[in-house]
Structures
1.
Amino acid sequence: MVGATIVADPTTVHREAELAWSGVTGRISYLGPVRGPARPGDLVGAGRLVLPGLVNAHTHAGMSLLRGYSNEEPLHRWLERVRAFEVRMTRADIRAGLRLSLVEMIRSGTVAFADMYLWDSGLLADVHDAGLRVLAATAVFGYDAVAYPAASPQTGAQVLDGTPALAAEFAGDELVQVTFGPHAPYTCGAQLMADVAGRAARHDLAVHIHLSETARELAESRERHGCSPIELAAWTGLLAGPVHIAHAVHPDDDDTARLAARGVTVAHCPVSNLKLGAGIAPVPQYLTRGVTVGLGTDSMASNNTADLFEEIKTAALVARGVAQDPTAVGAADALRMATQGGARAFGGRLSGRLAVGEPADLVLLDVTAAHATPMPDPVAHLAYGARGADVTDVVVAGRPLLVQGRLTTLDEDGIRDEANQRVARILGQAD
Ligand SMILES: [Zn+2]
């Protein structure tokens, strides 16, 4: 691809540049000045801004059939409402929701997502076939809890037992990684968390968990365990290995130091946290004190889109509003979270930047529209002006998944129709 403005990372912008990659290795082979005219088959660079593929650090992609289902309730009530819908979802419903999310993520420039939900071989194969990268946490809500009764009879204990085999099945897969997924301390309890810590260490697997999402969760944890959810995770051994935590909106006094010292990655989900009235994570404090922060959309039931450009803008603006300081989180900080920050959760497989030797995971944006004109600062445009709908092309591991607005691996119309039909059936079932 020649002639584009390329944001290799938030502090490195190449203008009128060329980017090349190998379709065999899936890695970038050249990034620099234009070496010659475009060749047939090259992506069109003129009028395009190229950036590293975005990483969604926290999703429940299989939940997208719940988009817009519960809109005005606090987390504990929202969980009850969502639960009433979820128990009716068959595996085919969850698969339809997952595939709808895959369409939306590709269309809005996401190349990788860290997810927690029902996962099995077939669902992981769906992600592989679509061409996206996934860090898939197999969700557990307690030893005896059957999380998705209409979709799978498995109890939490059975899911925990089966997770290492599922991870081993995809061990050689470039796109798929499997982790343990204890949902949260308030559903799983300390004993299960300690058990997961041991299993993760034995099988060399990471853990993805929700921690300290609401003030109520923090208060209940103090009452029940005498400490914060993050301290409880440390006490159970869960922070000893690679762990990725969603939210961390309400850290206790020493929690930030704990997260930094243990190399924990945090998925900041500003839109979900604002929509559920959960609070605002102290992101400037995290960044200043060396905590790795990525950006996540959380589920479609608490967002309602998978467009990471909304998270980038919101993350920057809300931090400034809270701090009453326009430098609290800069455009480069916000873009870095959505790329390099989230990539860290993938355990070194991704860097979230464009450079020779790195995976060819990239996104092209149309910057010819009125809302992108003029564009004196490409990084500021990405943070404050760009939208998912501006994405024209997406490449993952050297494979084009979106070419000039056309999906190459998924039947979008069919997926949308199926999603609508399935939602109508679920909502038609008696409460
Ligand atoms: Zn979540």
2.
Amino acid sequence: MKRADELGKLADSFNDMSKELLEKSRLLEQEKERLDVVVNGIGAGLALVTKEYRITWMNPILKGWLREDRLTLPCYAVIGGENAPCLDCPITCPDLDKIADEVMKFKDGANGERIFRHRVFPLNHAIEEEGEFLVVLEDITEQKQMEETMIQTDKLSALGIMASSFAHEVNNPLATINVYAEDLIDRIQAGDEDLDEDEMEHYLRKIKENTERCKRITGNLLNFSRKNDWTEDQIRVKEIIENSVSLVEHQLKKQRIQLELHVDEALPAVNGDGLKLMQVIVNLINNAVDAMETEGRLVVSASETNGEAVSIKVKDSGHGIPAEAMDKLFDPFFTTKPIGKGTGLGLSVCYGIIQQFGGNITIDSKPSEGTTVEIQLLAERSLKAGHGVENQAGKSEVPDGYGNSALESMEVGYDVSNKIVSR
Ligand SMILES: Nc1ncnc2c1ncn2[C@@H]1O[C@H](COP(=O)(O)OP(=O)(O)OP(=O)(O)O)[C@@H](O)[C@H]1O
Ligand SMILES: [Mg+2]
């Protein structure tokens, strides 16, 4: 009997165990289903890859993106379309200790070219020694297209603002020219005897002044629309500063402005277009001169910073810039000067040129004390060494539409430079 009892107990506990096992496998099944829903529902392509680049598992989304006949190839071939392992992947370089993150394009068959974000995470779990990695692929085509559209819209609206400001800026001098010319014609046709040479000269001077204003505006605008004509040279900054100053010396004397030049003798060369740099410096000096009216102190200096960059500063003791104007200074057509004096294009052109140099331009101003504009350009030797000036805008690529011919580059919008052009 005892034996039978023991057998019965054993059978009961087997029964319990098998029930428990059934329950556990049901729960596991449920968990798996849940996981499948999550894995397939996140919209990303997922794959597990061994350190030999073999794909051991992938979710149906990824399978749908890849070519079926290539699914057995190593991950760099089937996903990256490469012939050899990718260099910045943690599978290739475990020492990198980072997640690989890159954006890549490939054809996903049905939909043509699409853009994917591709990330690789090392998996640190119990089977670590096997070296497994999780590859996550996200289709970011729509997001990228949206960004593109936004950039285009931004450009278009900037163009719209530019075009309407341009029309406004040019219409005023054109209307003035029209009035003077019509008046002159009327008086000549009417045989007006009071019209002497002096008066004729006055009319013609007004017409010339306004024509020059139009020319300055269009000349400066060309700086936005042209990209080519950039002469890459090794520039001696000292020479450029001296040449720029000589262009405005007359104006400085006229306004009794005291000029100080501090240029380091051993200044390294910079690479770029010397005439463009001159255009920038002349523009900055002219702004400084305008801010000082008569009397005042202008300091133009250049020194080497950190052995990597050349810093050029134009400092004035003028009226300064009110805080509310600071973030508009580089906007095209932003000016506080009276009509006929400023076009508001000077600083925006400077900004574009310095961007093209891969440099930086910053303005520091204290109302009623003065303003300092600083330009930082990469020294030629650090270019060779592969360093960079940290650009404020976060990038140093050439923006659309800067650079023009040497002659136009001098049409800065000021009397002094215009005199040089017209010689
Ligand atoms: N050194 C400075 N001191 C005070 N204000 C300045 C200085 N530099 C620029 N500004 C302000 O910034 C504005 C924009 O300067 P920007 O050079 O772009 O145009 P502008 O000098 O008005 O006209 P232009 O196109 O003829 O140069 C000026 O109108 C002025 O208000
Ligand atoms: Mg200016």
